[in-house]
Each structure stands twice: as C-alpha cells, then as structure tokens.
Predict the structure.
Amino acid sequence: MKKITIYTLLAILFSFASNGAVFRNYNEVAGKWKYELPDAPEGYQNGIIDISVKNDTLIGQVLFSGENKTPICDIVYRDNTLTCNVYVEYEYIKVKMVIKGNKMEGAVDTSDGIMKFTAAKIVK
C-alpha cells in the first residue's frame, strides 16, 4: 500500500513538473519597458513595450512615440528569452530579446534588415 501511495505521489509531482504553466514566473518580464531602436525609421526609434499577464498568458503592446500603438502577438518566454511578433505598417516583424534583470537586449528582423535594440524596465 505504501508503494502505491508513493508511486501515485511521484506521478502527480512529475505531471506538475512537466507542465510548464504551473511553474511559470512572468514577473521578470511583465511590466513597462522603455526601448531604444536607433536604426529604425523616425517615429519608431523609441517608445514603450508594455507586457502583462492575463490568464497565465503573456499579452502586450508596443507604444511608439506619439499616439501609435500595436499589439504584440505570439509571445513566448523561456529561459530569459522572449520572442514575439508585431505588425508595423502592414509588415510582420519578428522580435527576439534576452532579459537580464531590469535590462533587455534584442533584435528585430524587418524587411530593412536586422536592427538591435535595448530596453530598460520602468520601475515605479
């Protein structure tokens, strides 16, 4: 009887461990990030990346200088790396960023080539 109980508990623990959703910690990535993308066209060189958590899923938007904003699609966060996609002026742009504490470094893959950017988390 003890063996059955132990095996059952182990099976439950392994099922939780294999389900990444149970152990996700999005606090590191959630929040507002001020970004700088110097090689981008004017109006897109700086702004805010706003990421939040809804129903254990990351959602977000990019707020460009001025009033322009666009939703962030297909956000995946794993091993301090966040990948996502955005549509800017009818162009599908792939984004990859690495988060190190309150700093972020990454690149956007556009039709004009790959451009590097940096961001810093806005701490209240």
